[in-house]
Amino acid sequence: MGAIIKVEGLGKKYRIRHAARGQARYKTFRELLSEIPAAVRRRFNTSACAPSEVEDFWALRDVSFEVQPGERVGIIGRNGAGKSTLLKLLSRITDPTEGRITLRGRLSSLLEVGTGFHPELTGRENIFLNGAILGMSRAEVKRKFDEIVDFAGIEKFLDTPVKRYSSGMYVRLAFAVAAHLEPEILVVDEVLAVGDAEFQKKCLGKMEEVGREGRTVLFVSHNISAVSQLCSRGLLIKNGTLNLDNDINEVMRAYTMGHPETSGWSVELSPNAARYSKMALLSCELSAGGADGEKRLNIIHPGDKVTIKAKFSCNATVEGVSIGCIFFSSLGVRVLDANLAMIERTMKICANSVLEVCWEFQQIMLSTGFYNIGISAGTQGETLCDYLEILQIQVAEAQNSPYPYAYPSPYRPNFTLKVRHCE
Q1: Cβ atoms 122, 130 nearer than 8 A
Q2: pLDDT tens across 258-296, in order?
Q3: pLDDT of residue 9
Q4: CATH superfamily of the domain spanning 266-395
Q5: 30, 181, 317, 373: which has the fewest Cβ within 10 Å?
Q6: According to the model, what pLDDT value does residue 26 have?
């Protein structure tokens, strides 16, 4: 069976017009009338436009890829990269400037709050309207109707015009319709961020179910944890072009490692780049290995021994200093902290000296994902230095891992469990 989505040389260009410097944004009716002759000349002679008035902007350029039936593909990239434009082209909301899109299946999309709904119609009427747009018969929609209403949780407001819905209610109904009307291709944008945590969890579960049924899912989100949980393949969009098409872990690594301050597992900083006058970080290095002594670069497995070394230059004498190493999840959650203050110890640093600090973690019990490592130093009343994203690492399960599924929390506790049957 061939690809269900085939994109070839896709591009979308917009024309941006700029007013001349000093030109008034709003004009009188008399001024507008006086400009009609010049506007007519420009309409039929594009060369009459001054070069500074019109600019071509390519939101997407030369994008090509294929998606097979049943694949769950995460599309990630920074704001303005072109992700939403790509989904609008796939959903045929807008036409491409160049290139070709081939779809072999019914596509349902959820791109922004309100897309595809008529505000004057009730929730009930919009369910049937969306089904008709997808090419479904009234009998098919009625067969799925109760499931849609139960999933959305809006039974009380089913006969209320959707223009009176809150944004959360709108999204719940829109997603329920898009996911339950059995499209071969489901396209979901960042719109799920509007819903609450419980509803987002339901949505991810439904999209996993859709994928298991052999249908295709395209998912755009800045929630890296959600993308990694749902998708097996990733597309990284950068400045309107397809920068990387690979396994989702490789794509997320390329995305998260794009921070200009970081450089893999080791970094050296110039003393002239110090952010604080009393103490500066000169270098930071991480090494990891398993229980068998194997040294690995780029990847850490849960249970590995990890060593982090940091070197500081001290420019002042300060007492009561605590130095810490912090691990942050890809969402910025602080999941591990190791500093002197936690063991009720502080130290004294001396002016014109170099200090080397080494943290040894006998077992790094983090769940799979990407993490930023920060290094900081300070007293109770003063920050001496602070580098929140100095290193970035990936934690992944070993091939022979005893864990059959991804651990649900960022930190994996090392514990034993005893069970005793009682009569």
Answers
A1: no
A2: 543 333 566 766 554 455 678 888 888 888 876 544 555
A3: 93
A4: abc- transporter (atp binding component) like domain (2.70.50.60)
A5: 30
A6: 64
Token code pair at residue 362:
């006998």
- Where does residue 214 fall: left (phi above 0), alpha (psi -120 to 50 degrees), or beta otherwise? left
Question: How far apart are alpha carbons 183 and 90 in whole angstroms?
Answer: 14
Please name every residue paired with 321 in a beta bridge, in sequence order, or none if there are none: 347
Class of domain 60-256: alpha beta
- How far is Cα 396 from Cα 59, in angstroms, rounded to an integer? 34
Determine how many CB atoms are found less than 10 A away from the CB of residue 331: 14
The residues, any chain, with a CB within 8 Å of residue 32's CB and separated by 6 or more, are: none
Contact 410, 329 (CB under 8 A): yes
Report residue 73's pLDDT band, with 50, 70 and 90 as the boundaries: very high
Instruction: Give the domain ranges of the chain.
Output: 60-256, 266-395
In the predicted model, what is the mean pLDDT of the chain? 79
Whether 273 and 285 have beta carbons less than 8 Å apart is answered as no
DSSP characters over 142-183: HHHHHHHHHHHT-GGGTTSBGGGS-HHHHHHHHHHHHHHS--
Q: What percent of the chain has pLDDT over 70?
A: 78
Tokens of 311: 């070197």
Q: Is the pLDDT of residue 62 over 90?
A: yes
Angle at 372 between CA 366 and CA 376, to 5 degrees: 110
| Residues linked to residue 296 through DSSP beta bridges, in sequence order | 288
Whole-number Å distance between alpha carbons of 361 and 304: 8
pTM of the full structure: 0.58
Q: Using 50, 70 and 90 to split pLDDT, how confident is the model at 96?
A: very high
| CA dist., res. 89 & res. 323, Å (int) | 51
